[in-house]
Structure formats: C-alpha cells, structure tokens
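Is this the right way to post structure tokens for a design question? Let me know if I should format differently. Anyway, here goes:
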C-alpha cells in the first residue's frame, strides 16, 4: 500500500524522517499548550484560543516566502534553521513565568510558528521533487502518512508524559517537544550531505 521503495532515495527518506519528527514536536506543543494556559495559568477558553492563534497565523504568512526561498536554498538548510527556531520557541514556552502576560505567550508562539513555517514548505517541496516525476502521487501519500504518523505519535506522547508527570505535564511535554524539534533540526541538516 505504501511506496516504501521511495525510501531508498536518501533525500526523500531524510525528508520523510524530518517530517515525522517535526510533526511529533508540533503536535506535542499544540496539544499541551491549552492545558498549560487553562490549568496552570487560569486562562479562559476564549483567551486560550486567541493565544493559540499566533502559531498558525505566522505559518500562513511565512509559507509563501519560504516557498520562494526553497527555489534558491536547500530544504536541509531552511528546514534545519526553521526547526532550530521552533525548538527555541518551544523551550521558551516551557520557561514561561508563573503569571505570564498575553504578550509573553504571544511572542513565544510567534517564534514557534516562524520556525515551523520556515521548515514546512521547503520540506514538502523536497519530498515531492526528490521522487521521480512519475511517482509524485506515491510521494504525496508518503508525505501525508509522515504527517499523520508524527501527529499521532505526538498526541500519544502527550498522554504518556501527562500520566508520568501529573503535576507539571504540560511543561515537561514542552521540554520534550523542544528536544524532538532539536533532533529534527539535526536530521534536516543531514540532508545537506545527501
């Protein structure tokens, strides 16, 4: 069912691995943050929703720009830099003070979105273009599978961390998500040699 033979192409395989790791980190961060905002910071649902907005909004704004950059620079470089920025953003979210202002949260979420935005478009382009033109349908299926595998794994990891650390699960999850994003940046950077 899956065109696993495409994984024999080094750039394709590394791009798929980077995608899985990045979506694990993204999923962990985005699932844990509402718990952090509501249960630890005492924010209501409306404020929580508003404070979650900067991440996807920045991704939407940055994506067309990074798409043009991907024509000139390698996905390994852009993705590695983007994931490193996302790792820093997640780490900064984990280090929020006990009583943050909305501005404290918003600029950290913006950093996360900026990092993910710099990663996602060039990586998707690398997945599709590294496969032979006749196999772009299979490459697209692998791309979607990698995204869903990463998101599902991230959600499962959130549940595990929340169970292991019932008092500060969201904070621990953000630290782990930052580490996963850092690892994904390293995997992305390895594409420079592929």
């Amino acid at each position: 069912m899956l065109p696993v033979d495409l994984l024999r192409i080094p750039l394709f395989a590394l791009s798929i691995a980077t995608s899985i790791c990045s979506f694990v980190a993204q999923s962990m961060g985005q699932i844990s943050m509402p718990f952090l905002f509501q249960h630890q910071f005492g924010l209501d649902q409306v404020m929580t929703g508003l404070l979650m907005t900067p991440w996807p909004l920045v991704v939407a704004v940055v994506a067309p720009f990074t798409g043009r950059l991907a024509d000139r620079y390698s996905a390994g470089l852009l993705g590695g830099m983007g994931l490193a920025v996302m790792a820093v953003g997640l780490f900064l979210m984990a280090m929020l003070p006990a009583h943050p202002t909305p501005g404290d949260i918003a600029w950290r979420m913006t950093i996360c979105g900026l990092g993910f935005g710099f990663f996602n478009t060039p990586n998707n382009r690398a997945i599709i273009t590294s496969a032979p033109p006749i196999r772009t349908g299979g490459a697209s299926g692998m791309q979607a599978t990698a995204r869903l595998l990463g998101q599902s794994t991230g959600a499962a990891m959130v549940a595990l961390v929340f169970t292991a650390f019932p008092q500060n699960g969201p904070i621990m999850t953000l630290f782990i998500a930052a580490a996963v994003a850092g690892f994904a940046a390293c995997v992305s950077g390895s594409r420079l040699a592929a």
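Format looks fine. Someone answered above. Worth noting: Helices lie at 10-40, 45-52, 54-69, 75-94, 102-130, 136-164, 169-189. The radius of gyration is 17 Å.
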